[in-house]
């Protein structure tokens, strides 16, 4: 039986003798070794063992290298398969994260649009409130001016009322004095003095308050009116507007 001495010190035989007993060769290399063994046997039967004796170590080396390469290739294929699985997992994770990111971006865009719309609405509301505030401030200022004018008018009317009241009091006093003078004619006759039945001492009138306006009529009478002075016309006085003294008697100054 032909035996083959392997490089690692093991003895390898042909397939009938468990080829490569020192190492476990792959199935593909074993099949290839069987085919080579049959060819070697054919050559040995035809020629001699010496024909293939030098060729055997080379074939064994080639088979060992081929087996090593196949083993490395299988390991690389396993690693490649693992890397492929990892790549698929990473790709799946990437697609999932990409979809999640897209959803997040869409939600962010929606949120940004909603925030922008809310900002515009708030800005419009602020502008409306500012406009209302300006209107209220203007109304408040107008009301304050009106109140100030009304207070001034009230003060003027109080002064006017006091002046009218004072004037009314003076006329009442004059009426009382006139009534007292007219009620004592007998004393004047008994004393021998010449009596004038309608004597009225007109005081020296000074500037009258503007609240009383006196103006003459065509009948020679003087009417009282708010906001003017007392102006004597001829010898007649009339104050019908104030509900005070009314007289059309002739007064002579003593």
Automatic annotation (TrEMBL):
Phosphoprotein found in the keyword field: no
Molecular function via GO: JUN kinase binding; kinesin binding; MAP-kinase scaffold activity; signaling receptor complex adaptor activity
Coiled-coil intervals: 66-167
Pfam families: RH1
Domain RH1: 12-100
Species this chain originates from: Callipepla squamata
One BP term from GO: vesicle-mediated transport
Record keywords, A-Z: Coiled coil
The name this protein goes by in its record: RH1 domain-containing protein
GO cellular component, one term: cytoplasm
Superkingdom per UniProt: Eukaryota
